[in-house]
Amino acid sequence: MEPTVFQNLADAYEALVDWPKRLANETPLFRALFKQHGVRNVLDAACGTGQHAALFHSWGLCVQGADVSPAMIELCRRRYGESETLQWVVRSFAEPVNRQFDACICVGNSLALVPDMDTVRRAVREMVAALHRGGVAFIQMLNLWRLPEGPVVWQKFRRIALESGEHALVKGVHRVGTRGYFEFVDLKLTVEGLTAQHECVPFLGLHAEELADMVHAAGARVVHTWGDYQQGMYQAEQSADLILVIEK
User: Which fold, 4-143+206-247?
Assistant: First the structure.
C-alpha cells in the first residue's frame, strides 16, 4: 500500500525537492545515455510529480509517466497536460506495461519503497519486459548502506506557502538493520498555532548484487553500477546513490 504522504501531500512532497539543482546534476547523464542508445520513447516508472517525464518530453521524446499514486498523476496532468506524445497513467510496479520503449527509468528511491522483495523482482521483470531489444533501463536509489545505524539524519527543511496555507516541511532518513525509514513532517502554521502531520515511510535495503541477479533472471544485463550521476564507482559504504544501467 502506498504511504499516505504520497496520496495526500503531493504538493508538499514536491516542494521539498530543489528541482533545478537536481535536474542540472542528472541531465548530462540522461542525455548521454539516450543519445548512445538512440532513444525516442521513454517510460518513467514511478514518475512522481512528473519532472523527469516533462524534461524528456521537452527534448522531443515520446514519454509515458506511470505512478501508483492517483494524487501524483493528477498533479502531473494538471501541471503538464497530456497529448499523443505525453501520457500519464496510474499503474503499479506489479502490473504489466503492455507496450515497449527504448528506455525506462526508475529513480528517486521508488524501487526500494515497494513492500517486499517479491515485488522488487516483479518490478525489475516488468521494466525489462517494457524495453525493446537493445533498450536501456536506469535504476537509481539512495544507498542505504552508507547511513550509520541509529538516529535520524535530517536532510531537508523548507517553509513554503501552499494552497492550504503556510507550512514548514521537514524530511529525514535513518537505518534500522536492513531497513530504511523516511521521516516526513508537515507543520501547518495558523494564527492559532501549529497542526502537525507525520509520516514514517519504510523502504527496503537493496544490494547491487541481488539487483543484478534479478536483472539477469529477467533476460537483461547490468552494464554499469555507479555511485553517483558523475559515474563514480559504486562503493557500498561510501556512495550516496546506487545506480544500475541495464541493457536488454
Answer: Rossmann fold (3.40.50)
